[in-house]
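Page header: ASSEMBLY MODEL / two components / 1274 residues total.
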Amino acid sequence: MGTQKGPALAGLSRILGPDALLTDPAARLVYSRDSSHMTLGRPLGIALPADASTLRKVVRFCKVNELAVVTRGTGTGLSGGAVPNEGEVVLATSQLKALGPVDDQGLRVRAEAGVLNDQVSAHASSFALHFAPDPSSQSISSIGGNIAENAGGPHCLRHGVTLHHLLRLEWCDVQGRALTTGRGLACERGIDLTSLLCGSEGTLGVVTAADLKLVTDPQSVATMAAFFPDLNDATGSVVSLLRAGLMPVAVEMVDQPMLEAVEAAFGFGFPTDVAAAMILEFAGQPEEVAEDADQAGNLLMGNGAREIRRAEDAATRMELWKCRKKAFGAVGRLAPSYVTMDVVVPLGKLPDLVREIQVIKAKHGVEIATAFHAGDGNLHPGVHYDDRDSELRRAAHEAADEIIRTALAMDGSVTGEHGVGIEKLHAVPWQLDPVSLELMWDIKRVFDPEDRLNPGKALPPPGSALAVPPSVPRGCTFNWDSMTVTAEADVSLSELQAQALERGLWLPVGLAAATTQADDPMGPGLGSDRSISSVVENILFSPALVAGGSARHFLLELWAETGAGRLLHTGAPVFKNVAGYNLAQMLCGSGRVLAQPRAATFQLRPAPEKLGVWRFADLSGDGNFWEGIHSLIDRLAHRDPTLGGPVFVIDGSQEDCSASGPQGTVTVLAPGRDRSWDLGDLDKRLVEVASLAGLELLEQKRFDFRSWSHALVHLPDWALAWPDWSVSAKRIQGKIEADRGPGDLQKTSFLPQKPPSRMIWQASPALVWIPGSATENEGWCCDHCCSGGKPTQLPDPDAGVPLDLLRGMKKVFDPDGRLDNPLWLKDENHG
Amino acid sequence: MADQRQTAKSHLAELLRSCVQCGLCLPTCATWLATGNEVHSPRGRLLLLEEVLNIEDPDTNIPVAFLAAFDHCIGCRACETACPSGVPFSLLEYGQGLAGDLVVNGSPEIPQPAVPGFVLRRLDSPSVLRFLGRVAGGTRSFFAGILGRRWRSRLDHLPVGMRSLVRLVGSMPTAPETDDQLRALLDDLVKSSSVVPPQTYPEDAPVSDDSPSDVAFFQGCANNGLLSGPSRRLCELLRSAGCRVEVPQGQDCCGALAAHTGRPTRAAAQHHRNREVFNKNTGTGSRIVVEAAGCGLELKEGLGDLGSQVIDAVHLLSGLNLPVLRAVPLKVAVHDPCHARHGQGISQQPRELLSRIPGLTLVEAAEVEVCCGSGGVWGLRYPEISEQLGRRKAENLATTGADLVVTSNPGCLGQIADGLALIAPDLPILPLTDLVWYAVKPE
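Prediction written out in full:
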């Protein structure tokens, strides 16, 4: 420590005020611990800044005075990420509690770092919206902490982890500068600092607030518990469930010892003489949920379940979830101490790993209780012991390490959601190879050259990596049980999709085929196909019925060659992975500026079965075309977006139509399962709403989803470019006004002053593509993007984009500028 | 002696090991919510206790900051309800015990209350409370007379010392003394309520035959001294349900006040006295009815064998067949006293009881499990945190759009009344049993 204790504390006290700086022995003890049971030393003091600006001053003060800073949410981390070393400053974000108004059209809300996870959903509940990531600690864990760890939770199976719900971060770097990541659109191209910061455990910067994506509440929910006498039957059923095309929102499990602890804590009346209890939940339209739950029930009974209980009401549902969510807290009933792991394996390997754990348990003579995010392949085996017995402690840690090594041998990851912290530092070198660890450290040095931000956490020491990276895969290999695909850079997306669709799966990012059918009555086709390399570089996000995600969200593992010619392998073929920095998703969408993709592994999803297409026109000539469309879009906007929300293609405008003729047409595309409750129901509602709006149905078609490219050929090429802004349905009336995004977007002058002749609107997450108007920024919307070396809209340092950090990243990956080199990255004076 | 202490310590250490530090107790802890400081959270206090138990040398002084942290605990036991690992509250009570000297002898770490210590120590007497209540009532009427309905918020900008006094005046529990006052208040509320009165009014309901015949009524200092109207009406209610109500003479304070201010000997003496009084007057099997949730918990735990006969008044009423004669078309929010909800597991019973009243709509406030910040005399010693919590509770209750708030503990009644006076002066609060009395006794 370079600074004297007294003056340092006096300085901090001046910034914070005496009440917001804790230095008494009680506080120094309490803040030296978190939920991990680990401790390193006592902090110098604890800063509780009341607002982000004070927080930044504290960070800056600490840098100037050579003090290390450990950012802390509410101290519920399980890997010791918030535990300070002796003499460090703990920066607690618990007082940053502002929660902005809910934007129910844009499905988003701004929350400061200290807001609790549960509070976000409670805040949005009156709009029938919620924040999907739901770690078991959600009643107490903070948004800041969730972001630092990239927290998961049961419902991440369907909705994705915390990162997938971040639209924009407000953060400060080690110099205390107020920075932001992007504009807050659903998904942005560029070097994705959001992906990099999320899960970096406070080692790169301090997140002060985030724009969070909200998810619509399902109309109906079915929660059920299945009890299995045989553990293998239970784990095997998880794979069978997903492979049967059922897409539960959550599939969770607890094994017998864990079930017993939970039963002792809450007395639910569950049988404890079974090997495992599985909790699964379906959500969506009532008929869909009922059908899926019945089908799942039959499947599970056929797979060896002894009994299935369905929660008939909200109270019983809460009870079932309590069983799973409070399991962690109830382990205190099993033994005084435990080592909790957080390993992830490809879904298909789940049964193997669980079998191996039983072997390891017997071999080391230890007790293991496990809670699973089974659908994600994420396990929390807890080895329980009495820490007063050193022999037991040694056996417990040996068993834990063996479980981790076993998971890694199955292409798994050390940690899926708990983070590395200090607890898993010893195991991460078994997973990372020297090149990736070195790059991570290089990035760390760009952001925090003096290692002041949470030193000694998240990354194992430089040079410690032991793993040998897998060689670049050839061709296109599917792992059906794990629902993943690994493809070489030049594999075409249509080829990949065609094969996946044969098995009822797809990569929900883009169009399947390069169909050009000039004679198609719906218009000219696309005429281009994408390679995997292009998907990774350009983050393909088309109106092709995406569930509010993008290629970035489905990318699990990446092989790429850096500008310096080094082969980087990063990520793992698992659904959740927070071991080391998230380089794969950070690089996805960054063009060919930092590295060149060589191969990638993506997560696949059950594919929709049919595609419904409806075309409406305003034949009344009463001039209410836009009003009609507004009404149509508004009523359908909140459809469950999991399979893909409806896409509206709007043609024509008031200007180019005569008073007597049609004023335009709107085509609605919606994927579905073509059951009476699904497309049939949508069909009814569409026609009903449309007729109310004065629109008449011109034609209606139903396509087999496997040949969906045929149905989509009328989408023009520009629609495959980047959506330029999101607008709410309410604004599509007469003229378009920008409604989305932070203030700088509204100031942008390229918005059209009159209705465009053609536009595409995606119901959720409210994205709009408009041809022509996008030319000004070449179809790119990101403020730190890099499109094939062309100077695109320039990053704006005033808006909080750290040009120096981006240039630093360029130097790390491509020191000699061999790859694409946008002007703003080269020119220190530019921008 | 040393051995005994060692045994006690190892027992506590063993209990402490069941805490896995998951932190699920934090969001229900009022002091953590108010301060955002983890030292003032159950997990924080247990970490400090662990350190204290690790001290081998009995002569080692426990840091004052530790003791202050223990003393900040209101004792609401919300953490005990929240804890999945079943960590017992007795651990925190032990911590509070350690801080006892600090409280009794005063310390710069413990804020001194606006009320002098010698008065504070005599609050467990109905006559002292009656006197204080009269003074407070008069002062309150005076302020309200000259400053209007928003008198409390108008006095909110006074210097800290004065504010504490105003707060003390504002938070003294009151309820209508006479039956006519209560009827008038509720009649007015019903008239202005937006709830549509039910079409059919209840007919005479039969009185249950299986009502317990004998109950011994525990008066409690605050109820006896400040809320004699509600106490009397509660007894009437019990009689309407067929109970024979005895009020044994010679009752003492339940002991909670002394126990919570670091005077265990005094508390034990009060337990002893009450045991004698009730042993003499209560047959085996008959119940000892307690109006205030705080007293109820103290008696259940402090009266030894007799404790199992103690029953909360609302709990008892909810099991009786009461002849409800009047519809009460009001939106009502229930505030559960912590010592009912967390201490005695009573939260369904009051709702069940009220839901029997035709036309009455129950509304639930956010953070229903969080303490209102009264904590008996705790609120007098930590007036700033207490006031913050009172406002928070009042905001949560006002947000429900309720016409009326009811509760069953005098401390909560005064604390929430004070919070509501600042946040929502039009929203009244009454003892829960007064509302039931109004439905049962129309004339």
